[in-house]
Structures are given as structure tokens and as C-alpha cells.
Amino acid sequence: MTLTALTRRTEAAAATGTAEPAGPHGHGATPTGPDSHGATPPASPRRSTRDADGLAVASFVLGLVGLLVMNILLGPAAIVMSLVALARSTARRGRALLGLALGIADLVILAFLVTGNGVVAWNFGG
Description:
The chain is 62% helix and 0% strand. It has 126 residues and is an all-alpha fold. Helix 3 (71-87) runs antiparallel to helix 4.
């Protein structure tokens, strides 16, 4: 066993607050890393929160851009991303709610334009 592996094992035991039983050479008997079934430990909640924050920002941006172009695609995408971000307990809750509101506004604008023009297309000219 190398010194690095021994140091990591000792630091891991100190972080969890559990003492490792001594093995035949005075070292811990339990291996570090994946357990005997090959499973890895669950992902940290910090990464999940960061992913949810990214989804909240993406929903806001897609909802904002969807007000101008491609609202038939960007509106529902903004709604889904904001709902997923809210379900994952994002730290940017306000931005996710704003993305949800903008996604709904995209679909409302699309409905008004479709009823006014009679087609799922709109233009700036007259």
C-alpha cells in the first residue's frame, strides 16, 4: 500500500468520524472506493444544486429569447427546464419562476399571433 492511499483512507475515516478496524499490518481492513458490488457512492448534493441553477438560468434565457423568435419551441423548453430546476430545489428560485412565466408568455404570444394571422408564422412587415 502506498503512502498516498494510506493518507486518503485515514482522511476519509476522519471525515466520516468512524474508526477503521486494524488489519493484519495495522492498516484499515476496509477498502476505499467502490464497494464490493462495484457501485459508486451517490453524487454530492452540491453538483445537483449547481445543475439546477444552470437549468434555472437556461430557462430564463430561453424564455426571453422565445419572446422574439421560435416561441413554439423555446416556450415549452423554458417551461420544462424551469419546472425541473424547481423540482431539484435550485438556489435561483426567482430566476426559475421568471423562466416559467416567460415560457408561458411565449405560448400566449404565439396564440395571439396565430389567431391574428391564421397561421403558425408571423412577420414584422405589413
